[in-house]
Write a structure and sequence with these properties.
GO terms for molecular function: DNA-binding transcription factor activity, RNA polymerase II-specific; I-SMAD binding; RNA polymerase II cis-regulatory region sequence-specific DNA binding. Its main location: nucleus. The protein is α+β, with helices and mostly antiparallel strands. The protein contains five helices and eight strands, in the order ααααβββαβββββ. The protein has one domain: SMAD MH1 domain (Smad3, Chain A, Alpha-Beta Complex). It has helices spanning about 5, 10-20, 25-40, 45-55, 85-90; strands at about 65-70, 75, 80, 105, 120, 125-130, 140, 150-155. The strands form four sheets. It has a two-stranded antiparallel sheet. The chain has a two-stranded antiparallel sheet with strand order 2-3. A two-stranded antiparallel sheet has the order 4-6. Helix 2 (about 10-20) crosses helix 3 (about 25-40).
Length: about 160
């Protein structure tokens, strides 16, 4: 067996989870992201099963699926760093997702990224997509002499 074959093995758990992948996200990057997640979830009893349940039955209520938060809140996958909930929402729900500003946690989520806890929920069905400020059809202009956003005027 050559070294390339040895290191390119995809575990059955990763293959199963990739079955729910959305869109044309870079295949190798998505595989690596899921592999990183599987390694973290295997350390937690029932976490893999909970994620598979959420992905296979998105219309059913599901529990949080958490991973430890790093010091800066980001997760490194290959050469790219990103916020964990954004990475996995991109893999399993919205491949065109650009930023955490486009996500809002659902009320059922106990460990949303915004709560700054030691664990963060990566269950893609615990977040909803919202319009990001950059996609507004109007132009946001601060009123003269104002620094706070409550004095912002929207020009349409």
């Amino acid at each position: 067996m050559n070294m390339t074959t040895l290191f390119s093995f995809t575990s059955p758990a990763v293959k199963r989870l990739l079955g729910w992948k959305q869109g044309d996200e870079e295949e190798k990057w998505a595989e690596k992201a899921v592999d990183v997640l599987v390694k973290k979830l295997k350390k937690k009893k029932g976490a893999m099963e909970e994620l598979e349940k959420a992905l296979s039955c998105p219309e059913q209520p599901s529990n949080c699926v958490t991973i430890p938060c790093s010091l800066d809140g980001r997760l490194q996958v290959s050469h790219r760093k990103g916020l964990p909930h954004v990475i996995y929402c991109r893999v399993w729900r919205w491949p065109d997702l650009q930023s955490h500003h486009e996500l809002k946690p659902l009320d059922c989520c106990e460990f949303p990224f915004s709560s700054k806890q030691k664990e963060v929920c990566i269950n893609p069905y615990h977040y909803k997509r919202v319009e990001s400020p950059g996609e507004w059809c109007g132009l946001c202009v601060p009123r003269e002499g104002s620094r706070d956003q409550s004095n912002t005027t929207f020009l349409l």
